[in-house]
Design goal:
Elements: H1 2-11, H2 13-45, H3 47-52, E1 57-58, H4 59-63, H5 69-81, E2 85-88, E3 91-94, H6 96-101, H7 106-114, H8 116-120, H9 122-127, H10 140-151, H11 155-165, E4 170-174, H12 180-188, E5 193-198, H13 201-212, E6 220-224, H14 231-236, E7 242-246, H15 257-270, E8 275-281, H16 286-291, H17 296-305, H18 313-322, E9 327-333, E10 338-343
């Protein structure tokens, strides 16, 4: 109390109240950055998952994997202070709050981490000293992991439900990543078979590694292939009756809508038996986000900074029509900025 009175005497009551209020308002912004940075470091080194899989670990067991004890203890002490872990007697336990954050929202943390290199170079991007993607790139591994985890909450269930009701038997998944969608779809449809393709060699190789230990390995095939050049695939697999793309097409819109229109028209010609299933971001009006700043405010920022174009549902409908496709089914969830379409 004496300390508070001394501060009031020095600053005056109105200024003392104003200063405290403004620091309290600033704290969540600073704390969010600090918490994320600490969690990302634990995530990347594997320490976070070791903690989540345990009922409590000795700090020494974590440093035994090469982590620096002083830095680790600093991180854990801070996370203890914000109620995410509890450090006592040389042991660390994960608190329920952190377990909840690492459940469904985990994908949001991982997807944001994928853009950490972009934010680290934001000053250079702003001043023109760096360009994306020439000088800075996303962390592709965490783009896939974060997106896959987030998509399990709504996009994958909606897409799998559409496919099931339309009787899909052999699906070709464009931009398969780590196979998160195909695993979900195969779990939902026990008779489904699938081919996943990805143009990126390391991603396709990683997908094959993941597949090797999956119970779905007899039903899924992985190939490195370019979705814009599937002539050989069409000749080899005319029985493909479903083509899926979850949050894939928008990455090419920087080259103009005609790039996607041409691809969709080509897929329609090459795979005439197939229904095309599209799950895509639908841009939220900025005035709506200003009134209710959901996580899509960050989502739009990430994409804008990395030259990924997000368009509204009407633009997707226009591209589908230009490609000669008919919308068999459409579900647009404005509240989450995502749309789903079955096309023929």
């Amino acid at each position: 109390m004496n300390q508070a009175l001394e501060i009031i005497r020095l600053l005056g009551l109105p200024k003392a109240i104003r200063v405290k209020k403004r620091f309290d308002q600033a704290l969540p912004h600073v704390r969010g950055y600090a918490v994320c940075s600490c969690l990302w470091a634990l995530l990347e080194t594997g320490a976070l998952d070791r903690l989540l899989e345990s009922d409590g670990l000795a700090i020494e067991s974590l440093t035994g994997s090469g982590l620096q004890r002083h830095v680790l203890e600093s991180i854990l002490s801070y996370l203890d202070g914000v109620g995410l872990v509890r450090v006592e007697g040389g042991r660390v336990n994960v608190m329920p709050k952190l377990r909840r954050l690492m459940d469904e929202p985990r994908g949001f943390f991982e997807l944001t981490y994928a853009y950490a290199p972009v934010f680290n170079r934001l000053r250079d991007l702003l001043s023109g000293q760096a360009k994306y993607p020439r000088d800075v790139q996303r962390l592709g591994k965490y783009v896939g992991r974060g997106s896959g985890q987030l998509c399990r909450t709504l996009p994958y269930p909606v897409m799998a439900d559409m496919m099931k009701r339309h009787g899909a038997k052999l699906v070709l998944d464009l931009g398969c990543g780590d196979l998160a969608f195909l695993f979900f779809a195969c779990e939902a449809m026990p008779a489904l078979r699938a081919i996943g393709i990805d143009a990126d060699g390391p991603t396709a190789a990683y997908a094959k590694e993941v597949l090797a230990s999956s119970p779905c390995r007899e039903r899924i095939e992985v190939r490195q292939a370019d979705m814009f050049d599937l002539t050989a695939m069409a000749r080899e697999r005319p029985d493909v009756d479903a083509i899926t793309a979850v949050d894939t097409y928008h990455e090419y819109l920087i080259e103009g809508e005609q790039k996607i229109v041409g691809l969709l028209a080509q897929l329609r010609r090459q795979f005439p038996r197939a229904i095309l299933y599209v799950g895509e971001f639908c841009k939220q009006p900025h005035d709506k986000l200003r009134r209710r700043p959901t996580a899509f405010l960050e989502h739009h920022l990430y994409h804008d900074l990395t030259n990924q174009v997000i368009v509204d549902a009407a633009a997707w409908q226009r591209m589908f029509a230009a490609a000669g496709l008919t919308i068999l089914e459409e579900k647009v969830f404005d509240m989450v900025g995502h749309g789903y379409f079955a096309l023929r």
